Amino acid sequence: MQADKLLPTKEKNLLQFALGESAVVAQQEYDLADNNAKTAASSLRETSNQLEVLHRGLTQTQFQRIAEVVDADDQISILNGKIVEAQNIGLIQAKALPQQLVLPTLNVDDVFNILGTSLENIDLAAEQQVKEHLNIHNKNRLEKWISDGHAYGDEGNCLYCNQPLDEVELIQAYRSYFNQDYNQLKSDVSRLTGLINASCSNEIIDRLKARFETASAVIDGWQEHVEIIPPTFDESSARDALSNIENLLNALRESKEVNLLDSVGSEEDRSEVTRNWQEVLDVVVACNDSISNATAVITDYKNNLAALSIDNLQNQIRDMEWAKARYRQDVIDLFAQLALEKDQDVAAKAEKQTKKDSLNQIMQATLESYKDRINELLRGFGAQFLIPNIDFNYRGGLRSDYVLQMRGANIALNGGVPDFKTSLSEGDKRTLAFAFFIASAESDPDLANKVIVIDDPMCSLDLNRKQQTRTVLKRLHDSCEQIIVLAHDVHFLRNLRDDVLRTGNPNNVKCLKLKAVANRYSDFDEINIDQECESVYFKCHRILDEYMAGNAQSSMEIARSIRPMLEGYLHRRFPNLINGGLLFGQVIDLISNAQPPSPLINAQNITNELNEINRYAGQFHHDTNPAADQVQITDSELLSFVERSLALIYAG
Asked: Which PANTHER family match (predicted)?
């Protein structure tokens, strides 16, 4: 039982011991369980505090439930980039979008019209004659060569052999064959090379490529903000298809040039040109599709960018930082430790409750059995209060909770009016504690084999309670194996010793004291308890007697004992007639000046002797001689004055 607000530490321990061994063991088990519960709770609190530093703004449960983010650093980097983008949204929104390629056109109608042109108004006889002539020679491109030469046919003679051309039948056939329409057709065929070159120029692909490269550069400029699949342009396929068209048309042109009057170029040829041109268009369409996809990604990014919130991005970064912190190894270890400590905390609380229930049962039985004996002891001590009932609680540790009854009024242990603190003196409180202890000790069935140690049981007690305390301790001494009493009041110990010796063996009583030894340690030493209880008068008388008996003493101590011995003698011879504050010389003057009927006149016959002794003894006291420590003592002179002082007392 503890009473922190009422008693010093020693009395707390006394009250605790007073509950009895079974209760003390039960309390120790409860205290251990309580300490274990506090330790477990403290460890749990400390681990929680360590975690709290990491999740400020979140509850511990929220922090623990955060999902792991493997690429948290990468996401934080992306989010920081988005913050920069959000801060520069105006500049980003103003950036250009990629432009698609313009679909090219192919116009070969004029080419095929020229290739398909033939002359129907040529003289058939002349045509046959010219054809036969050409076939005879069977020379490649001969017809063209003759046609070109026919242009110079206005001359009268042949420009090659200078023979006259008139009346030459073949020349007349040439003139009919190579007429004006033929010349027009020939002129149209001569334009085919230019038309084919214009239609199938490499500049078509070059322009497409340049436009593609511009779009690619624009898209590359967006790659710092958003990931875009770069567009593609199959330049090689486009050039191959265009080259196929050019080769086909040139082959047809060459055929037309050889057979000027024949229709050249079939529907299959037209379809082949169309098919190859479609390959060129397919390359352009595929490129435009990839540009469209990139544009869609960019447009979506720009739309999302407009909705970006810097605060939201920063919150996302904070969430990522929490996720990083949550899955640091030291934090994972802390949560594992926290789970273990939670289990330990639950187990410790359950164990504490079990020990508390057990202690409750013992306390209820123990305190009720003590109540009657405690009240009996209180009456024996003359206490003005009793205990009508005893209870207990655990506020601040196991405490007794009882009401005292004093002069018909109830005094609660904690609070209330009248108040326990002011209603009971320190002596009353110690008496109450001592009664608890004695009741506990006397109820021990194994008391005869127990050693009982009592520390200062009589502090602040009045004479009646001191007497009753000695009586109780004497009874306890007679009932136990050994009793050890520690006290500061040597007179109480002397009286207790005398009580014990009246019926006990002196050899079984030992009086010891603590003395200082080397290195500031203490040791036990025997003590003459009777000498320790001596008054100044008896002590000085004993010192002078021992000196006269030949026991070596300090000469200065002997010399300084003469005057107080005589003062004590006069005080005892004339009680209440000599003021205790007077110096020895003043006491002698008081006796010398006494008048009847004062009893002091009976000592006037020794005043001369008293004055002589005082003149000698006074030199060794500082109140009459400031240099008392320097006075030289002659042993023979000292012995003489000691004899005279003792003789004066013995003579009366």
From this structure: ABC TRANSPORTER ABCH.3 (PTHR32114)
